[in-house]
UniProtKB/TrEMBL annotation:
Protein name, entry field: 2-iminobutanoate/2-iminopropanoate deaminase
Similarity section: Belongs to the RutC family.
InterPro entries from the UniProt entry: RidA, RutC-like_sf, YjgF/YER057c/UK114
A GO MF label: deaminase activity
Record-level GO cellular component terms: cytosol
One Pfam family hit: Ribonuc_L-PSP
Length: 129
């Protein structure tokens, strides 16, 4: 089964040689999302909570383009520039998942992220998960 490229205008367009997501054999691999508002192209950096919410809304749009929801997510990777922001990021992130069925996850502090944002999140989702 060939890979299917997933794109949506409801999430930021790729700015390099990558796609928003790739679906193959029922598994969706998303690219990392940062807090770019898809309509304006502007970064949402009002607060770490607002930034995280925009990231999650971008991810929601990518999942929807593949006919999936956060229920389908089995693994997330969160990259943050300052571990002191973890609790606020986690608070917003947690609003998108049910604790009982939340995905596996790692959270890693990194030196820098694209456009020097504070948080980037990628996901793996499975159809019929």
């Amino acid at each position: 089964m060939p890979k299917q490229i997933i794109t949506t205008p409801n999430a930021p367009a790729p700015i390099g040689p990558y796609n928003q997501a790739v679906l193959i054999n029922g598994t969706l691999y998303t690219s990392g999302q940062i807090a770019i508002h898809p309509k304006t192209g502007e970064l949402v950096l009002d607060s770490i909570k607002a930034e995280t919410q925009q990231v999650m809304e971008n991810m929601k749009a990518v999942l929807a383009a593949a006919n999936m929801t956060f229920e389908n997510v089995v693994k997330t990777s969160i990259f943050i520039s300052d571990m002191h922001n973890f609790s606020q990021i986690n608070e917003v992130y947690g609003q998108y998942f049910d604790d009982a069925s939340a995905p596996a996850r790692e959270t890693v502090e990194v030196a820098n992220l694209p456009k020097f944002v504070n948080v980037e999140i990628s996901m793996i989702a499975i159809q019929d998960a």
